[in-house]
Automatic annotation (TrEMBL):
<dbReference type="InterPro" id="IPR012373">
    <property type="entry name" value="Ferrdict_sens_TM"/>
</dbReference>
<dbReference type="InterPro" id="IPR032508">
    <property type="entry name" value="FecR_C"/>
</dbReference>
<keyword id="KW-1133">Transmembrane helix</keyword>
<keyword id="KW-0472">Membrane</keyword>
<feature type="transmembrane region" description="Helical">
    <location>
        <begin position="95"/>
        <end position="115"/>
    </location>
</feature>
<dbReference type="InterPro" id="IPR006860">
    <property type="entry name" value="FecR"/>
</dbReference>
<dbReference type="GO" id="GO:0016989">
    <property type="term" value="F:sigma factor antagonist activity"/>
</dbReference>
<dbReference type="Pfam" id="PF04773">
    <property type="entry name" value="FecR"/>
</dbReference>
<protein>
    <submittedName>
        <fullName>DUF4974 domain-containing protein</fullName>
    </submittedName>
</protein>
<keyword id="KW-0812">Transmembrane</keyword>
<dbReference type="Pfam" id="PF16344">
    <property type="entry name" value="FecR_C"/>
</dbReference>
<feature type="domain" description="FecR protein">
    <location>
        <begin position="122"/>
        <end position="215"/>
    </location>
</feature>
<feature type="domain" description="Protein FecR C-terminal">
    <location>
        <begin position="261"/>
        <end position="323"/>
    </location>
</feature>
């Protein structure tokens, strides 16, 4: 397996912060199991992290002094010793824990660039909400429900990296010198300027849809194998890292951007979970109808009773109400 350093670096730091998702934890665990060197690297990082967390006083690295020392020592082939400024315990508690990770990941040089660099932004959506954000380069991200997006507060040199769990549609500003890259637990999708959708929920295969332009998609573990998608094409990537390309038959895959839910031959059990989250109600489907298939759509502001009646008619089942609970059955 092969991993990008930036991706693993991000996973390690957030693992130490106990903020990894289940899918990200699986990716990090696979990396740790590859060899002893990876495990030793992680353990050294964890021990230093723990030490900084239990210290009586926080030590704030003097980044400029460290960089100057590093530059001088580099010319003479000797190792630079960090310079530190002692601060109040509460002032730098969160900062020093991140700094400890950065210093171990790359020494004084890496610390200089990364600690001087941009902060990380995280946007999360709940089960019944979507969000639209403008990224630092002016690109737009339309974030679907139950999703998490992470990115640098300011894109600088190199790639414009986005880490996604869930689903988002991107309208990307063209910049040939700075590729726009979306990382998921299973894939790496790179573009220069286009509109495309990435669906990467934990329990489902990753899907990438291209509305305009061109993107390249590769599995995280087999990045030498990739597919280039053009307008109207999509690719599905499973846990086996196999890439299956196909044509897009319609634009229903981005209907969620307009708060429209489209159900195309989905089982009742899946449909009612989404309707429950949207309307904050309890819906039960009898066991003998849970796999009945549904073809319908739910539009913004549509009354709940109308939605449930449409589902019942589509699946040829009965709708009843017991107190505050709706039931679908025969």
């Amino acid at each position: 397996m092969s991993y990008t350093f930036d991706h693993i670096e991000s996973l390690i730091v957030r693992s130490l912060e106990s903020s990894l998702s289940e899918a990200e934890q699986t990716t990090l665990q696979s990396w740790l199991e590859e060899n002893d060197a990876n495990r030793r690297y992680y353990e050294e990082l964890r021990k230093t992290w723990d030490l900084t967390g239990s210290a009586d006083e926080d030590i704030m690295p003097d980044i400029d002094a460290n960089w100057a020392s590093f530059s001088r020592k580099l010319q003479h082939g000797t190792q630079a010793q960090p310079t530190a400024i002692v601060r109040n315990v509460n002032s730098y508690r969160g900062f020093i824990r991140a700094a400890a990770a950065v210093l171990l990941l790359g020494g004084a040089a890496t610390a200089y660039f990364l600690l001087k660099g941009p902060a990380q932004m995280t946007v999360q959506t709940a089960a019944n909400e979507t969000n639209i954000i403008v990224l630092p380069d002016g690109s737009k991200a339309f974030i679907n429900n139950n999703s998490t997006l992470r990115y640098a507060k300011n894109f600088k040199d190199g790639e414009r990296a986005i880490h996604l769990e869930g689903e988002a549609f991107f309208d990307v500003v063209k910049d040939d010198a700075h590729p726009f890259v979306v990382y998921t637990s299973q894939t790496r999708t790179q573009v220069l300027g286009t509109t495309f959708d990435v669906k990467a929920y934990t329990v489902q295969p990753v899907e990438v849809f291209v509305l305009s332009g061109k993107v390249s998609v590769a599995g995280q573990e087999q990045q030498t194998k990739q597919v280039v998608l053009t307008e109207g094409r999509k690719v599905t990537v499973g846990k086996d890292q196999q890439l299956a390309e196909d044509a897009i038959s319609n634009h229903d895959f981005i209907a969620w951007k307009d708060n429209i839910m489209v159900f195309d031959d989905e089982p009742i059990s899946h449909v009612i979970r989404k309707v429950e989250a949207l309307y904050d109600v309890k819906i039960v489907a009898d066991e003998n109808v849970q796999e009945y298939r549904i073809k319908t759509r739910v539009t913004p502001g549509q009354p709940l009773e109308e939605v449930l009646n449409t589902i019942a008619v589509s699946a040829n089942v009965n709708l009843t109400k017991e107190g505050s609970v709706y039931r679908l059955g025969k």
